From TrEMBL:
<keyword id="KW-0804">Transcription</keyword>
<dbReference type="InterPro" id="IPR004839">
    <property type="entry name" value="Aminotransferase_I/II_large"/>
</dbReference>
<dbReference type="InterPro" id="IPR036390">
    <property type="entry name" value="WH_DNA-bd_sf"/>
</dbReference>
<comment type="similarity">
    <text>In the C-terminal section; belongs to the class-I pyridoxal-phosphate-dependent aminotransferase family.</text>
</comment>
<keyword id="KW-0238">DNA-binding</keyword>
<dbReference type="InterPro" id="IPR015424">
    <property type="entry name" value="PyrdxlP-dep_Trfase"/>
</dbReference>
<dbReference type="InterPro" id="IPR051446">
    <property type="entry name" value="HTH_trans_reg/aminotransferase"/>
</dbReference>
<dbReference type="InterPro" id="IPR036388">
    <property type="entry name" value="WH-like_DNA-bd_sf"/>
</dbReference>
<dbReference type="Pfam" id="PF00155">
    <property type="entry name" value="Aminotran_1_2"/>
</dbReference>
<keyword id="KW-0808">Transferase</keyword>
<feature type="domain" description="HTH gntR-type">
    <location>
        <begin position="9"/>
        <end position="77"/>
    </location>
</feature>
<protein>
    <submittedName>
        <fullName>GntR family transcriptional regulator/MocR family aminotransferase</fullName>
    </submittedName>
</protein>
<keyword id="KW-0805">Transcription regulation</keyword>
<dbReference type="InterPro" id="IPR015421">
    <property type="entry name" value="PyrdxlP-dep_Trfase_major"/>
</dbReference>
<keyword id="KW-0663">Pyridoxal phosphate</keyword>
<dbReference type="GO" id="GO:0008483">
    <property type="term" value="F:transaminase activity"/>
</dbReference>
<dbReference type="Pfam" id="PF00392">
    <property type="entry name" value="GntR"/>
</dbReference>
Amino acid sequence: MDLVLDDNGPLYLQLARALKEAMAAGRLANGTRLPSSREMAYDLNLSRTTVVAAYEHLRAEGFITGRVGSGSYVTSPWAGPVRPPPPRRAVVAQSAFSRRTREFCTLGNIPGHRPPGMRYAFQFGTPVVNTALTAQWVRELTRAAPYVQPNYPRIQGLPALREAVSRHISRTRGVACTPDDVLIVGGTQQALSLIARVLLEDGDEVALEEPHYFTARTILQVHGARLVGIPVDRDGMQVERMPDPAVKLTYVTPSHQFPTGAVLSHERRLALLEYARLGSGWIVEDDYDGEFRHDQQPVQALQQLDRDGRVLYVGSFSKTLFPALRLGYIIMPPGLRDDLLAAKWTDDFGCASMDQAALAGFIASGAYDRHLRQVTRKLAERRNLLRSLLQEHCGDRLEIMESHSGMHLVAWIHDMPAAEGDALIRAAHERKLALYSIAPCYLQPPEGTGLIMGFSAMSPAELREAVPLFAKCLALFPRRAAGERGRPALYLARSSG
Ligand SMILES: Cc1ncc(COP(=O)(O)O)c(C=O)c1O
């Protein structure tokens, strides 16, 4: 301990004064355990009797509590928690990347965020609570642990996991790939960052659906992209409205458009591939929840139709397993393979080996398939329940968009302007019900009110309670008379520069 004795009077009083000074300066915070008298005597080269006398003196004055032998603790009137002096604020000279990150990144804006204190939340993107999965996952980690190499991981990902992923998505999503095409990444988030770094220069045009996954938009913006929103209708992104000259990159969710749920039609898929081919552009296919198909045959991946190596297929385990895993993959087109590997190298040398090994075991054993079947059944049940409850309690006030997969529905509220929609969300919040506006998914927010209604985070029993509460909140905002009605709320998306 850094104490200076002042050579003034008896040694025990010098030591008591030095300790009081340390308390006053905040170096000895309230609650701090003082070294034992033996340790203190050794450190300061004093006799133990001197230290015991100093501690007794401080105890008598109320600066410390406790007894010799059981520890002495600071209780001084001044000593707060020890806080190092704040570092001087350096002159800010950020990079362009950092300035854009500050501009576009809202750190609280995480998909599925549940505000504190809510009884019910129509969270989206949150996996179904599944205790069996937790137990299975612990088993896989335990099984994998003794075999995991402690050295740095392979940049491209564990061969066993690349093999398991390539087999799985070839079979279930029709993706054309071999294990050598797979790059294991830290979720879609890292996939998009790497792709943007490899492909984009400042100011390059990037097309994305309008509405779209707002996190993808943010990643593209912080990498300097100029975004062009392409409206979505019931057949997905309106590819015929893609800009001319062609954009460098298009981000699209063809199997289950986020958030509307539309499926990109076969004609538009072919048209988009042709557009990329002619313009030497690239397509990111985000297949985030294509596995959860409820009432139709699975829609195959766009990548399957790609004959020119222009599609970067991106998958994630965030929805099919859990987002805390932070694992996903890119199926790399041959032309970008080396660049993507180099980008991954500069980021982190590769994802954590232990989780990769556990995941490889989980997929290879067939447990992943079983888990997907179970979750899909549960999700279908909840989706049907939510749909029928909304119809029963909210009747013709809502237009629920057609969606055959995933974990949420989009419901538009007829004739409710966006400002009134915000008031509805606030009113629901006060009643401990969290609602989620579709507006953040737009470059140009719509004039009407749309809600993303997740059904994965609530049990059927909770859904049965949450929907009537939602209907009560909605009733606080009566429907407008025919003359006051605005335009229908659907597809108000506009193209934007
Ligand atoms: C459209 C879309 N893509 C991807 C993801 C998954 O992202 P990540 O893998 O970074 O967790 C989500 C999660 O909400 C999503 O909504």
